[in-house]
Amino acid sequence: MAAKRVPTMLFGPSLREWAYNMSGFNKYGLMRDDVINETPDVVEALRRLPKHLVDERNFRLIRAAQLDFCKVILPKEEWTKYSEDVRYLAPYIEEVQKERKEREKWEKE
User: Fold this and answer.
1) CA–CA distances in Å: residue 33 to residues 8, 41, 71, 91
2) Cα separation of 53 and 46, whole Å?
3) 10 vs 72, more confident
4) How far apart are CA 29 and CA 66, in angstroms?
5) Would the keyword Transit peptide be found if you checked this record's keyword annotation (predicted)?
6) Are 92 and 48 in contact (CB under 8 A)?
7) Do 26 and 83 form a contact (C-beta atoms < 8 A)?
């Protein structure tokens, strides 16, 4: 019996886009960094965010909570697209982790 061939397009960027869309948070207008697990490093990174990014994040979170409460999602043209999702929190998390590791190393010595 011959094995069925799986289309190669499933293992590239389109698989990532499919997984992104299946996660569901984009249907509420949220970004990946809006739903990140809040570890102590993430909490510190959120504290360091510029005010305009905090305001944008809070708006998205409040809108998503209201949409969920009303049991509706945004119209498809307002969903966050994979190509438009920006990892706005990543540089701050990396900075906090780097500082934490440096502090741990310093305390160790």
Assistant:
1) 29, 13, 23, 11
2) 9
3) 72
4) 12
5) no
6) yes
7) no
Q: What is this structure's pTM?
A: 0.79
For residue 60, what are its two tokens? 């998205």
Q: Helices 90-108 & 40-48, crossing angle to 10 degrees?
A: 120
Instruction: Specify the CATH number for 15-108; select among 3.10.105.10, 2.30.29.30, 1.10.1090.10, 3.40.710.10.
Output: 1.10.1090.10
DSSP string covering 12-71, please?
A: SHHHHHHHHHHH-GGGGT--GGGS----HHHHHHHHHS-HHHHHHHHHHHHHHHHHHHTT
Q: Give residue 25's identity as a one-letter amino acid code.
A: F
Letter string b/e over residues 55-68, b meaning 16 or more CB atoms within 10 A of that residue's CB: eebeebeeebeebe
Sole residue written with tokens 């997984």: 19
| pLDDT digit string, tens, across residues 18-64 | 889 899 999 999 999 999 999 999 999 999 999 999 999 999 999 99
